[in-house]
Amino acid sequence: MRKSLFFNLTSPLLFKSQLLQWASQFSNLAFLNSNTTGSENHSNINVNTYDLVVGVDAICELKCSFEGAFKQLENFIESINDWCFGYLSYDLKNDVEKTLFSKNQDSLEFPDLHFFQPRLVFMLKETRLEVSFFENNYAESQLQKLIEEINSIDLRNEFIRYNAAEIQAQVSKENYFKNVAAIKHHIQQGDIYELNYCIEFVTQQHQVQAHLLYEQLNSISQTPMSCYYKSDFVHLCCASPERFLKKTGTKLISQPIKGTRKKGTTEVENNQLRKELLNDAKERSENVMIVDLVRNDLSRSASKGSVKVEELFGVYSFQQVHQLISTVSCELSSEIHFIDAIKNAFPMGSMTGAPKVRAMQLIEQFENSKRGAYSGAVGYITPEKDFDFNVVIRSILHNSKTNTSSFMVGSAITANSITENEYDECFVKAAALFQVIEKKQQH
């Protein structure tokens, strides 16, 4: 049976780093960080239950390919009836829609799905820390000693060590332009309305302490849905601002992002950029298309008449970019299992396009890399069957067995897209990722 102990922290930000350092020794770790103290105008989107929630050390785990993955996850959740942390890769689309497949090159070898039941759960809200544990694993005195040990970790001797490696684009600019032209032809033919087209960057011989790579990324790009996830030799360093789906009681909310501007250097410039983003007809069109898609996805799991748009075209600012974010919600039908609600909305519309299935077929055709964990989702499920999952974007994925790192970036292609602008947008979104990987050593 789980019990909880509570602690008051004098320095929550320092404790976050100390906890990450301590927890990185385990084969399974989910470190979900909302960066509440570093946020700007995020009050409407940062509805995280915790400032930080961490699952450490697997009691048991589920690792599988896409075939029947959602049913396996449902059975796993029901069998443990406990906290569960994990990720859903983009390629679970093949379980959602049987006509889809994933045959593109895979640089990283992430399993299609991974979830684990943690031995310890750390939940931080402001200065109050709750630690959930099993009595047969820890005595209260042991746990108190553990918190003291974590609090005493000296981080001054910790720094990123890795050899510099060349970052190679897997799609040339010439081929990017050709592919966008072909995608726009499909749009002109009425085949699709919008498609999220992504390109991959890979670096080999990248020996790195991945949890410190995440710390470095998070220091320059603090976002409300960031995370560091580790399962054996695969690591995810994620600076995502986007929520895929959250359940609290019977309420579901999704917060799709469509619309991006690079952050300016002055407040006057940023105010102008926010205004420009809000009033850009193309960006608004992209956003409303995805909002309609999300409304349709949620309606498959909602009680009748409960789907609503709580906010349309909200402009939010982060350290690297300004984003156009909308919020869609519904009440979960009593006839729908919560795992089916996730399946019904997966993959998220902001990373696919409309119509969704046809967009995913064309994504497989025009992209040359398997997305894997990128544009999937990382999150947790509570014993009460509430959950919260992000969208895996603005992320570095690392395989420590092959010393390979990869990141993908993309944008929504519509009839009004200017190809040069779409290409530039990819590099705006990737700026922090390039900056972190290209550092040779960071104290």
Instruction: Find the structural class using helix and strand composition.
Output: alpha+beta
Relevant CATH superfamily: Anthranilate synthase
- How many domains? The number is 1
**Overall pLDDT level:** 93
- What is the helix fraction of residues, given as a range? 25-40%
Strand content: 25-35%
Beta strands, count: 22
How many helical stretches? 11
In the CATH hierarchy, the third-tier topology is known as Anthranilate synthase
Overall 3D form? globular
Distance separating the two termini: 41 Å
Describe the protein's architecture and organization.
- The chain has 443 residues and is of the alpha+beta class.
- The protein is built from eleven helices and 22 strands.
- The strands form two sheets. It has a 20-stranded antiparallel sheet that branches.
- Strand 20 and strand 21 (404-413) form a beta hairpin.
- Helix 6 crosses helix 11.
- The protein starts with a strand and ends with a strand.
Task: Summarize it.
The chain is an alpha+beta fold and 443 residues long. Helices cover 31% and strands 32% of the residues.
